[in-house]
Amino acid sequence: MALSQDDIIVSHQLIVGEGYPTPILKLGPEKVRGGASIEGPIVMGSPDQWPYQTAATMVGPDSNIDTGPFAIPGALSACGLYNHSPYSMHVFGDAAVHNYLDVNLDITVGETIRAGKLIESQGDVTAYCGAHKLSQKKNFDIPHPTREGWRLRHTCTEAPYNDVYIRGELKNESEIKLPEYWCRFVHLKSITVHITPIGAYQNIIVKRITTDKIVLDSNTMIPIHCFYQVFATRADGEDLIPEYPGYSPNDYPGNNAEYSINK
């Protein structure tokens, strides 16, 4: 028989389900005041958002006509900020996810999200109070390391290839050592080499490329001294198709699962 109450106040712990609290809530004199253990599933907000169970806790938009235009401070405010708030979940503290987080609308976290497996977003992902968006150019913006009152911003290089590179300096040597894993990580035939002689003209050439090194040669009498850059295309996936007919990223003729898409 269902128990109907206008208000229910629990002074210590709320246990719903099997009847035993989780170990972190404890029992007896050591029990945690204000704790709750609910087996689930739990539905908060508009119930018509969830035609079937998708998680242990399902948070939808606010459907409470009694809520006013104010927010109640706390670790979690689930669509109670305004009538029919556009937010699904607003977290002022930490959010820990040990399996799968699926939010239909928006989630705002003031501190940290920790996920044991997967966090998936159908929209944009923002951080630093909106200062960084996943869909924008990949960059970092930090205090300038040498100029007080300045900042330093770098952005990632973009190209029509799925490339990786190494760079360095050779002195009194004629072989550029390639990373051990490159033999299976890149297409060896895609390797290109850029050489900049140091100190004097040396007429350096690439003599041969093997699975583990690039052999240089020079027809001058002085030892080789140069900077080098080596680029190669990754072999662990499809070649990038930089241009294709279509109206959205969904029209990409290759495997979209290999990419983070900026729409």
Question: What does the secondary structure layout of this molecule look like, with pairings?
Answer:
Elements: E1 13-16, E2 35-38, E3 42-44, E4 57-59, E5 76-77, E6 89-91, E7 95-97, E8 100-101, E9 107-109, E10 113-115, E11 118-119, E12 126-127, E13 132-133, E14 139-143, E15 151-155, E16 163-171, E17 175-177, H1 182-185, E18 192-197, E19 204-209, E20 213-218, E21 225-233
Parallel strand pairs: 1-2, 3-4, 6-9, 7-10, 8-11
Antiparallel strand pairs: 5-6, 12-13, 14-15, 16-21, 17-20, 18-21, 19-20
How would you write the strand order of the largest sheet? 5-6-9
Query: Approximately how much helix is present in the residues?
Result: under 10%
Structural class: mainly beta
Portion in beta strands: 25-35%
Q: What is the total tally of β strands? A: 21
Average of per-residue pLDDT values = 79
Whole-angstrom Rg: 29 Å
Could you name the ranges where pLDDT drops below 50 across 5 or more consecutive residues? Answer: 69-83
Beginning-to-end CA distance, first to last residue? 53 Å
Strand count, sense and closure of the main sheet?
3 strands, mixed
Descriptive account of the structure:
The chain is mainly β and 263 residues long. The chain has a domain at 163-233. Helix content is 2%, strand content 32%. It is built from one helix and 21 strands. The strands form nine sheets. Strands 5-6-9 form a three-stranded mixed sheet, with no helix packed on it. The longest helix has 4 residues, at 182-185. The radius of gyration is 29 Å and the shape is elongated. The two termini are 53 Å apart. 9% of the residues are buried.
